[in-house]
UniProtKB/TrEMBL annotation, chain A:
Cofactor: thiamine diphosphate
Protein name (record): Pyruvate dehydrogenase E1 component subunit beta
Function, as annotated: The pyruvate dehydrogenase complex catalyzes the overall conversion of pyruvate to acetyl-CoA and CO(2). It contains multiple copies of three enzymatic components: pyruvate dehydrogenase (E1), dihydrolipoamide acetyltransferase (E2) and lipoamide dehydrogenase (E3). The pyruvate dehydrogenase complex catalyzes the overall conversion of pyruvate to acetyl-CoA and CO2.
NCBIfam families hit by this protein: PRK09212.1, PRK11892.1
Annotated InterPro entries: PDHB_mito-type, THDP-binding, Transketo_C/PFOR_II, Transketolase-like_Pyr-bd, Transketolase_C
PANTHER family the UniProt entry points to: DEHYDROGENASE RELATED, PYRUVATE DEHYDROGENASE E1 COMPONENT SUBUNIT BETA-1, MITOCHONDRIAL
Matching Gene3D superfamilies: 3.40.50.920, 3.40.50.970
Domain of life: Eukaryota
Family annotation (SUPFAM superfamilies): Thiamin diphosphate-binding fold (THDP-binding) (SSF52518), TK C-terminal domain-like (SSF52922)
Subunit structure: Tetramer of 2 alpha and 2 beta subunits.
Automatic annotation (TrEMBL), chain B:
Domain of life assignment: Eukaryota
Organism: Hibiscus trionum (Flower of an hour)
E.C. no: 1.2.4.1
PANTHER family named among the record's database cross-references: PYRUVATE DEHYDROGENASE E1 COMPONENT SUBUNIT ALPHA, PYRUVATE DEHYDROGENASE E1 COMPONENT, ALPHA SUBUNIT BACTERIAL AND ORGANELLAR
UniProt-recorded name of the protein: Pyruvate dehydrogenase E1 component subunit alpha
Length: 367, 432
């Protein structure tokens, strides 16, 4: 994380970036730290004040200040007509958001977690994603569906699924997943301004984490492009792709690997659909080894798609089989130790990188 | 609460029609009684005529309604409901709907049309009765049985026919098809295949109208939305969710139930615990009206009130139109489960024949004028077929078009630039 800030300031790429707080303090433009929650809140605030057509809708977004306090203060500022507390009717209010978007309003629909979006998935896919195509361009749907995705801590099977792969397989949707505060601000602003339906997958455990941001990020017109991944850390030995919370894990794994002389390149996907295949492939052609990291179920997951893409385009460059790290192929257990086993950990990434670099014996395939 | 009580009143009698309606709603089981009137018009039932059509095949039978001719006579006695121009407009619209749908059936059996085609024959009174009262900026949301809604709203017959043939000149360039008629210009918002899917979208469009007036301060924005859906949809969760939210936020929407008693082969009475759909309105705090959907003039009267309510900002209304589809659910449906006597009964109440009779008996139009309209519409439909036949099929490059409004959604190509910027992007097979 500190490494990213340094890259931004100096605009150069460093091979070996040592996280050193003392070095950072000398660069004043990176001094401000904001949490992901503040980043999202400020992005929503700025977009709502810039465009009166933007409005929020969801359970507890108003008087409760947001189930995870992302929409704090917005009800007081913009009033109940623009920050709507809905009844517990995902299918209904998502459809209402889509209908409003048909007419040029820009709803931001919050799902308390993306697990609840399954009750509304008909509208996300059939009424939102497919409409521009079915109407041959007459009806575009400038809507954003946002909320926490993936596992939190101890919330059980029905509150822990990662939906990146499901939504990313559907044409007509754009699927974004930010990692740090800069990603959160830039991608949410881009999503709200985008004329197409965007599924914005946040992560509950990241909401409270602080990251340094530059002044440019705090500017109200700051926006990140949709469809471009970011190389968080440059390396030459192995490429690790990740999104959302696992980018942090991948960066920590990269630091551990560095001690063993393996320099990992960490790619923060940012955009799951469209996937930045060119960045991924360029990186694999450089390092010749790939590890994909995700939190969701392994079958038909994001890693599977990345692996297929790399095999299609850069097969000759691969020196080792692509390693996929994903959540365990089970519904999320409740017990804390089992939950830890069901979600990728930093050690898993480190082990996989070593296997890919032929520094250790491959594990036998488990069930 | 005042609204709930006044709304409850609406469920037992319509606002301005004959106040001596004797509908009995106390116990839902009463409908098995052949003299019950729940499916009848809001007028008094004529017992003599109802006994002729006593269908007792299943429990909870469909009971015949009053004879249309008798009602017409009593209706025309006080004042005429429509002027000559309006009458001819209604007639023309219904004939267009009927002729178009009949032509669709022909074209389907000739192989020019394919996939799922759901025809609207018999239900024209509902579409014409409601949609002809709308302005261009009002919107209509429908289901897969949407050809006639699109036509009534003003989408040209040529565009609809081309769309059905899958040609590039169709209203959605051939990308939508029979079930997905969209028109930005005429504010037809689809065209949804899933039942119940259009209702929240319609509620959202009504929400936008209210938002524009109150938040964006477009003071004269009084656009109304009509949501058309069937009896089967009224058991779907989304229907209830939207009744709740529309009444809660007082949205300018009219929920129009086209109760044709059948959801493919499932009779409404077999599927619904309380078949009186209009009663579900007051449960959510809005008026629930039941109207004879085979009579375009009655539908029009009810529609005027409901649309007027919405425009004045008084909130939503639930209107149940008792109607019937003369053909099967779709052109692939053999339609074996419906009783021929039931079909014959409703065929005798054909809305077009009824309106024709009304116009002639009240000297609003002559036979010759009506025949001229018939001929004109035949020509319009023939022209639409010719146009569709001669139109080209979509080019291969159209496959990848319009997935996104912002085409950068296709991502970045191997050369590092956005794929959509590559002029060769939409050529050849889809390779994304």
């Amino acid at each position: 994380m500190l490494a990213i800030a340094r890259q931004r300031i100096l605009g150069q790429s460093f091979q070996n970036i040592r996280p050193a707080v003392s070095v950072l303090r000398s660069y004043s433009s990176a001094a401000k730290q904001i949490t992901v929650r503040e980043a999202l809140n400020s992005a929503l605030d700025e977009e709502m004040s810039a465009d009166p057509k933007v409005f929020l809708m969801g359970e507890e977004v108003g008087e409760y200040q947001g189930a995870y306090k992302i929409t704090k203060g917005l009800l007081e500022k913009y009033g109940p007509e623009r920050v709507l507390d809905t009844p517990i009717t995902e299918a209904g209010f998502t459809g209402i958001g889509v209908g409003a978007a048909y007419y040029g309003l820009k709803p931001v629909v919050e799902f308390m977690t993306f697990n609840f979006s399954m009750q509304a998935i008909d509208h996300i896919i059939n009424s939102a994603a497919k409409s521009n195509y079915m109407s041959a361009g007459q009806i575009s749907v400038p809507i954003v569906f946002r909320g926490p995705n993936g596992a939190a801590a101890g919330v059980g099977a029905q509150h822990s699924q990662c939906y990146a792969a499901w939504y990313a397989s559907c044409p007509g949707l754009k699927v974004l997943s930010p990692y740090n505060s800069e990603d959160a601000r830039g991608l949410l602003k881009a999503a709200i301004r985008d004329p197409d339906p965007v599924v914005f997958l946040e992560n509950e455990l990241l909401y409270g984490e602080s990251f340094p941001v530059s002044d440019e990020v705090l500017d109200s017109s700051f926006c990140l492009p949709i469809g471009k991944a970011k190389i968080e850390r440059e390396g030459k030995d192995v490429t690790i792709t990740a999104f959302s919370k696992l980018v942090g894990y991948a960066l920590k794994a990269a630091e551990i690997l560095e001690k063993d002389g393996i320099y990992a390149e960490v790619i923060n996907l940012r955009s799951i659909r469209p996937l930045d295949r060119s960045t991924i492939n360029a990186s694999v052609r450089k390092t010749n080894r790939l590890i994909t990291v995700e939190e969701g179920f392994p079958q038909h997951g994001v890693g599977a798609e990345i692996c297929a893409s790399v095999v299609e385009e850069s097969f000759a460059y691969l020196d080792a089989p692509v390693e996929r790290i994903a959540g365990a192929d089970v519904p999320m257990p409740y017990a804390a130790n089992l939950e830890r086993l069901a979600v990728p950990q930093i050690e898993d990434i480190v082990r996989a990188a070593k296997r890919a670099c032929y520094r250790s014996v491959p594990l036998a395939a488990t069930a | 609460m005042a609204t709930a009580f006044s709304a409850a009143k609406f469920s037992t009698q319509p606002f301005h029609l004959n106040p001596t309606s004797t509908t009995s709603h106390d116990s839902p089981l009463v409908f098995a009684n052949p003299t019950s009137q729940f499916l009848g018009s809001t007028r008094k039932l004529h017992l003599t005529s109802s006994s002729k059509f006593n269908l007792t095949r299943r429990s909870g039978t469909v009971v015949a309604v009053s004879d249309v001719v008798k009602q017409k006579k009593s209706k025309s006695a006080p004042t005429l409901l429509i002027t000559k121009e309006e009458g001819l407009e209604l007639y023309e619209d219904m004939i267009l709907g009927r002729a178009f749908e009949d032509m669709c059936a022909q074209m389907y059996y000739r192989g020019k049309m394919f996939g799922f085609v759901h025809l609207y024959n018999g239900q024209e009174a509902v579409s014409t009765g409601f949609i002809k009262l709308l302005k261009q900026q009002d919107s209509v949301v429908s289901t897969y049985r949407d050809h006639v809604h699109a036509l009534s709203k003003g989408v040209p017959a040529r565009a609809v026919m081309s769309e059905l043939f899958g040609k590039t000149t169709g209203c959605c360039r051939g990308q939508g098809g029979s079930m997905h008629m969209f028109s930005r210009e005429h504010n037809v918002l689809g065209g949804f295949a899933f039942i119940g899917e259009g209702i929240p979208v319609a509620t959202g469009a009504a929400f936008t109208s209210k938002y524009k007036r109150e938040v964006l301060k477009e003071a004269d924005c009084d656009h109304v939305t009509l949501a058309f859906f069937g009896d089967g949809t009224c058991n779907n969760g989304q229907f209830f969710e939207c009744l709740n939210m529309a009444a809660l936020w007082k949205l300018p929407i009219v929920f129009v139930v086209e109760n044709n008693l059948w959801a493919i082969g499932m009779s409404h009475l077999r599927a619904t615990s309380d078949p009186q759909i209009y009663k579900k309105g007051p449960a959510f705090g809005m008026p629930g009206i039941h109207v004879d959907g085979m009579d375009v003039l009655k539908v029009r009267e009810v529609a005027k009130e409901a649309i007027g309510r919405a425009r004045r900002g008084e909130g939503p209304t639930l209107v149940e139109c008792e109607t019937y589809r003369f053909r099967g659910h779709s052109l692939a449906d053999p339609d074996e489960l419906r009783d021929p006597a039931e079909k014959a009964h409703y065929a005798a109440r054909d809305p077009i024949t009824a309106l024709k009779k009304y116009l002639i008996e009240n000297s609003l139009a002559s036979e010759a004028e009506l025949k001229a309209i018939d001929k004109k519409i035949d020509e319009v439909v023939e022209d639409a077929v010719e146009f569709a036949d001669e139109s080209p099929v979509p080019a291969r490059s159209q496959l990848l078009e319009n997935v996104f409004a912002d085409p950068k959604g296709f991502g970045i190509g191997p050369d590092g630039r956005y794929r959509c910027e590559d002029p060769k992007f939409t050529e050849g097979t889809a390779h994304v």
